[in-house]
Amino acid sequence: MNKVETKRQPFLRTAKYYETDQMGVIHHSNYIRWFEEARLDLMNKMGFSYDKMEKVGIISPVISISCEYKSAVKFNDTVAVIPKIEFFNGVRMTVTYEVIDYKSNELRATGQSKHCFLSKETLKPVKMKQDFKEVYELFLSITEGI
């Protein structure tokens, strides 16, 4: 696996009509979906897609998630969702997110998700540093590189 430049690489997302609520703004639950899309995009850019992670026997469930809304995103707005791995120790990981309006550069939301790494087969924690050294080093390099 190659180290990839991932500093603040945005995931661009255009807000869909079906994501709006009665007030004409994007429903709050969609931001969590956008965080997941951005996190998976980051992993793809790292060269270690979620599919690849599952194939080697690792899953990474969300154990906590939060979002703070700053200003409304409306239908057809394009936003940049910027994920950043803030913490990684081979057992747990924290990813932060910024949702920024693509045209105005206005901050729309911030968030955070926390994850653990489990064996797909046993659902028990994995020790990446020991059992998946190459994967551990890749995540660590991305964390240190940000």
Summarize the structure in words.
- The structure is a single chain.
- The protein has 146 residues and is α+β, with helices and mostly antiparallel strands.
- The protein has a single domain, classed as Thiol Ester Dehydrase, Chain A, CATH 3.10.129.10.
- Helix content is 27%, strand content 32%.
- The protein is built from 4 helices and 7 strands.
- The longest helix has 18 residues.
- It is elongated and about 50 Å long.
- 25% of the residues are buried.
Topology at a glance:
Layout: E1 11-14, H1 29-46, H2 50-55, E2 58-59, E3 62-69, E4 78-88, E5 92-101, E6 107-116, E7 118-119, H3 128-131, H4 133-144
Antiparallel strand pairs: 1-4, 2-7, 3-6, 4-5, 5-6
The CATH topology assignment is: Thiol Ester Dehydrase, Chain A
Q: Helix-strand pattern, N to C?
A: EHHEEEEEEHH
By DSSP (H or I, 4+ residues per run), the number of helices equals 4
State the domain count.
1
* Overall average residue pLDDT: 92
Strand order of the largest sheet: 1-4-5-6-3
CATH architecture descriptor name? Roll
Broad CATH class: Alpha Beta
Low-confidence stretches: 1-5
The percentage of residues in β strands lies in 25-35%
Amino- and carboxy-terminal Cα gap = 18 Å
Structural class of the secondary elements? alpha+beta
User: Helical content, roughly?
Assistant: 25-40%
Q: CATH-wise, what's the superfamily?
A: Hotdog Thioesterase
Shape: elongated
Can you summarize the main beta sheet?
5 strands, antiparallel
Number of E strands: 7
Rg (C-alpha, Å): 16 Å
